[in-house]
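RESIDUES AND SHAPES:
===
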Amino acid sequence: MRLLFRFYEPQKGEIYVAGKNIQNVSLESLRKALGVVPQDAVLFHNTIFYNLQYGNINASAEDIYTVAKLAGIHDAILRMPSGYNTQVGERGLKLSGGEKQRIAIARAILKNPPIILYDEATSSLDSITEENILNAMRDIARHRTSIFIAHRLSTVVDADEIIVLDQGKVAQRGKHIDLLTSPNSLYYEMWHTQSSRMLNRSSSERWEERNHQTSKEEERKKLQEEIINSVKGCGNCSC
């Protein structure tokens, strides 16, 4: 990614974007064509509106509402006490991880670059939040070149091409379904390892939810019994 942004120059080979060698274009035009959604979204100690508009300072309020809807954060913002004027706190501490990532996605869309890079954009999120954000990213990815850097393979299963790196070298490349046809491959092993973990995690989450519901039901019955007993012991009413 640093090579693509020309923070470093390649020692070997060349990088082309839209048929042009990136070393033959200005840094300004190159970086204007690229957007990034990082693993840990950087937010300023200001309002949600300010943080969104940072993607394009000339954007109108309607533009900002539109990208917020695309990123699936608009309704959540409206539920906040101050809406788009809500202060996010230092580095966005007042927001959840999922909310911060959605704001980062919306900000990248507002910039409207032809290429967006998602750098481990969902790696720190729980599985449910990750799936919701992936759905938003899939809709956005249809309209531009999208590059996903990920260890979680669930992020890249819909990609037109997956490039598997091992020790800095290309080990495999192809579509998800094709890469799974080689049982001894790195991708195959990673996929089945992660799938097993996800199944175990889902079972654990369902068990915790079932226990939580059972506990709530027991509390409700206990409260109901206490109310009935208190009424039975009352001699001054016609219950």
Summary: The two ends are 74 Å apart (CA to CA). The beta strands are 16-17, 20-21, 34-37, 115-119, 145-149, 162-166, 169-174.
